[in-house]
Design goal:
By secondary structure, the chain is an alpha/beta fold. The protein is about 50% helix and about 10% strand. The protein has a 5-stranded parallel β-sheet with strand order 5-4-3-6-7, sandwiched between helices. Helix 14 links the parallel strand 3 and strand 4. The longest helix is centred in the middle third of the chain and has 22 residues. The two termini are about 45 Å apart. Bound molecules: S-adenosylmethionine (SAM) and the ligand COc1cc(O)c2c(=O)c(O)c(-c3ccc(O)c(O)c3)oc2c1.
């Protein structure tokens, strides 16, 4: 048993205590970001900070803030300043402005990540994340099924409100990535292709950018019927509703952006075999282009575990 003097001298314990508060309170920041977005703070700052906006002007311009809650805004702003989303300018007469990452919370920024923040804090997602330990104890394939009784995709087909949040989140990421894909650093991948299927291509943001950048390349978006809806292509862009596990249209190339990570290894093998059936051989120019977030394997322990199991 440690006495008080031992605790005082135990640097490791003090450090662990500090670190544990970081973990315990880590739920605060995402909920503050959601709150700021829903109150319209980033957009109000963007329109009115010239170059900074005072707290009283900010509070007066928030469209749906109940006046009785105005005194809570400084603490919200303090958390968001501390986290690097807003700047606080003390020398220039007390005021706020947006930082570079804060700009990504704007509704109309071309690379806005707003929808991803709102999706990540959606109650359906939060209920999934708190179900992980139950999922590890039951025999269902995903934590989503443990929490909601059906797969994420079946749920989306039945719940247009949640499906909209998900599709908007994916679209927000695709805007930045599609600009990158057609830029000098990546466009070589598409040169010489005459057709491409964006499998699970969602609302078509990436396929549309590729179709515009390469007029002689036909871009096809394949996704589930509730995502394609009544989207119609134009010119060299086509939308097809269907399941990638049934049939993938024939093309020179297939794009899989953020698809494989959603599926088990067995399903990925099934899907990649379907892809192979739909493209020419490698020698004849066929290719599958995969875009995923890759974790670096610097201290190998975690990912080696996975390698042993698969
Ligand atoms: C993580 S999202 C990625 C969307 C898009 N590729 C992107 O990066 O923004 C996965 C997509 O796969 C689609 N999807 C899921 N199951 C599918 C299936 N069986 N056939 C076709 N698309 C499917 C979903 O509707 C969703 O649009
Ligand atoms: C880079 O961040 C990503 C990328 C993705 O492709 C997905 C994704 O596909 C996904 O289903 C989900 C997801 C997470 C929790 C849920 O409860 C849920 O219904 C869906 O999150 C993602 C996050």
């Amino acid at each position: 048993m440690l006495n008080n003097n031992d605790i005082c001298a135990n640097d490791q314990l003090i450090q662990a205590e500090v670190q544990s508060w970081d973990y315990v309170l880590s739920y605060v920041l995402p909920s503050c970001i959601k709150c700021a977005i829903e109150l319209g703070i980033p957009d109000v700052l963007h329109k009115n900070a010239n170059p900074i906006m005072s707290l009283s002007d900010l509070v007066a311009n928030l469209p749906n803030l109940n006046p009785s809650k105005a005194s809570f805004i400084p603490i919200l702003m303090r958390i968001l300043v501390h986290s690097g989303l807003f700047n606080y300018h003390q020398q220039q007469g007390d005021g706020y402005s947006l930082t570079g990452v804060g700009r990504l919370l704007l509704e109309d920024d071309p690379f806005s990540k707003r929808s991803f923040f709102l999706f990540a804090e959606h109650p359906v997602v939060l209920n999934t994340t708190v179900s992980v330990s139950n999922w590890l104890r039951d025999d269902l394939p995903t934590a989503f099924e443990t929490a909601h009784g059906k797969s994420h995709w079946d749920y989306c087909a039945e719940e247009p409100e949640f499906s909209g949040f998900f599709d908007n989140a994916m679209t927000s990421d695709s805007r930045l990535i599609s600009n990158l894909l057609i830029s000098d650093c990546c466009k070589g991948v598409f040169e010489g292709l005459t057709s491409l299927v964006d499998v699970g291509g969602g609302t078509g943001t990436v396929a549309m950018a590729i179709a515009n950048a390469f007029p002689s390349l036909k871009s096809i978006v394949l996704d589930l019927p509730h995502v394609i809806g009544d989207r119609k292509g134009t010119g060299n862009l086509e939308f097809i509703a269907g399941s990638m596990f049934d049939k993938i249209p024939h093309a020179n190339a297939i794009l899989l952006k953020w698809i494989l990570h959603n599926w088990s290894d067995q399903d990925c093998v099934k899907l990649l075999k379907k892809c192979k059936e739909s493209i020419p051989s490698k020698e004849k120019g066929g290719k599958v282009i995969i875009i995923e977030i890759v974790m670096e394997d610097n201290n190998s322990n975690g990912s080696n575990l996975f390698k042993h199991n698969t």
